[in-house]
C-alpha cells in the first residue's frame, strides 16, 4: 500500500497522507512509553513482581478446588473474600521463595516426566486411558494454554521435590553420632543372686494380727477391678415393630403432639446492593442516591438480573 502511494501520489497531497499515517503511530508510541500498565503489581518477592491478575487467577483456582472438593455443600458466602485473598497471597509468597530456592539448587523436572504425570491424573482419564479432549477442556476452563498449564505443573512438582527433600532429610550433629555409638557399643557387668521363696518361707507362720496389719498397710495390693451386675432386656426394632400396628390416625395424633420434632430452623439468604451516602451529604446527594435505588428496584421488578445490577452498581 505504501509503495502504491509513493508511486501515484506526488506533491503536497502525498506529504499530507504521510502525515495522517505518521501522527497516530507517533502518538501510540508515546502513550505506550508513558502509559501505566493495566495489570498493577500486587506484591514483590525478592525483586520478583506478582501482578493483581495473577493473584485473582490463583483465587479463582482456589475457589474451584473448594467447589470440586465440597460439591453441593459448597457455599461461597461462608468464605470471607478478604481472608481468602490473604491466604492465597501468603501461599504465592511461599511458592515464589521455594521457586527461587529450587532455581538456585538447579532442581529440574523433565518433559517426559511432566507428560507421564499429566496422563496419570484421573480427572483427565476416560475408561482408564488419557482423554485428550477432557484435558484440553479442563485447561481451557482455567484460562490457560497447554504450555502454561504444563509449566504450572512443572513448577508444582519442583516445589514438591524441594519440600520432600527438606522434610525427609535428617541432620545429626557430631555429638549425637558419637553419643549414639557410645551407647550402642557400651558393655556392663552385673552380679545377681537367686533366692527361692520356698526356702525363705520355711516354717514361718504369720499370726492373724500380722496378716491384718499387713493388709491394712497395703490395701492397694488386694484391690480388684470394679464389677457390676447388670440385667437388661434386648429390644430389637424388627421384633417390636412386628407386634405394633401403626394407623394413619395414630401417625397424625403423634405428629400433632410432637410438631417441634419435625420443624427445621428457618433459613434465609439475603443479598443487597449498597448505595452509600456520606454522613455530611447534602439533600441533592441524598435525592440522587434515592433515585438510583428506585431505579434499581424498578429494573429488578422488570426482570433484570440481580447479579448484573450488583456488578453495575
From TrEMBL:
User: Any stretches that span the bilayer, and where are they?
Assistant: 12-30
GO molecular-function annotation terms?
Answer: peptidyl-prolyl cis-trans isomerase activity
Q: How does it sit in the membrane?
A: Single-pass type II membrane protein
Q: Key word Repressor present in the record?
A: no
Top-rank lineage group of the source organism: Bacteria
Alphabetically list the UniProt keywords.
Cell inner membrane, Cell membrane, Chaperone, Isomerase, Membrane, Rotamase, Transmembrane, Transmembrane helix
Using the record's annotation, list all stretches that form the PpiC domain. Answer: 265-313
Q: Where in the cell is it found?
A: Cell inner membrane
Q: What is this protein called?
A: Periplasmic chaperone PpiD
Please report the organism this UniProt entry assigns to the protein. Answer: Thiolapillus brandeum
Amino acid at each position: 500500500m505504501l509503495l502504491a502511494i509513493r508511486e501515484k501520489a506526488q506533491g503536497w497531497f502525498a506529504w499530507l497522507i504521510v502525515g495522517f499515517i505518521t501522527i497516530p503511530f507517533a502518538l501510540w508510541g508515546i502513550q505506550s512509553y508513558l502509559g501505566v500498565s493495566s495489570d498493577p503489581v500486587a506484591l514483590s518477592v525478592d525483586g520478583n513482581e506478582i501482578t493483581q491478575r495473577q493473584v485473582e487467577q490463583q483465587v479463582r483456582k482456589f475457589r474451584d478446588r473448594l467447589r470440586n472438593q465440597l460439591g453441593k455443600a459448597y457455599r461461597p458466602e461462608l468464605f470471607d473474600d478478604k481472608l481468602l485473598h490473604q491466604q492465597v497471597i501468603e501461599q504465592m509468597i511461599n511458592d515464589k521463595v521455594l521457586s527461587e530456592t529450587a532455581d538456585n539448587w538447579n532442581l529440574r523436572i523433565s518433559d517426559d516426566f511432566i507428560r507421564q504425570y499429566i496422563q496419570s491424573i484421573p480427572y483427565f482419564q476416560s475408561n482408564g486411558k488419557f482423554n485428550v479432549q477432557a484435558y484440553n477442556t479442563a485447561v481451557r476452563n482455567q484460562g490457560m494454554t497447554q504450555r502454561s498449564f504444563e509449566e504450572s505443573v512443572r513448577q508444582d512438582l519442583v516445589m514438591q521435590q524441594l519440600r520432600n527433600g527438606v522434610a525427609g532429610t535428617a541432620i545429626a550433629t557430631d555429638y549425637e553420632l558419637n553419643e549414639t555409638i557410645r551407647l550402642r557399643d557400651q558393655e556392663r557387668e552385673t552380679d545377681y543372686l537367686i533366692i527361692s521363696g520356698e526356702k525363705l518361707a520355711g516354717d514361718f507362720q504369720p499370726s492373724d494380727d500380722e496378716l491384718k496389719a499387713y493388709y491394712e498397710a497395703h490395701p492397694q495390693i488386694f484391690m480388684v477391678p470394679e464389677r457390676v451386675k447388670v440385667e437388661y432386656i434386648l429390644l430389637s426394632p424388627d421384633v417390636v415393630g412386628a407386634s405394633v400396628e401403626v394407623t394413619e390416625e395414630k401417625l397424625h395424633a403423634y405428629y400433632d403432639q410432637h410438631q417441634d420434632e419435625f420443624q427445621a430452623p428457618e433459613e434465609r439468604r439475603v443479598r443487597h446492593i449498597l448505595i452509600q451516602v456520606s454522613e455530611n451529604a447534602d439533600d441533592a446527594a441524598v435525592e440522587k442516591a434515592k433515585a438510583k435505588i428506585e431505579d434499581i428496584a424498578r429494573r429488578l421488578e422488570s426482570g433484570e438480573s440481580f447479579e448484573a445490577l450488583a456488578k453495575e452498581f
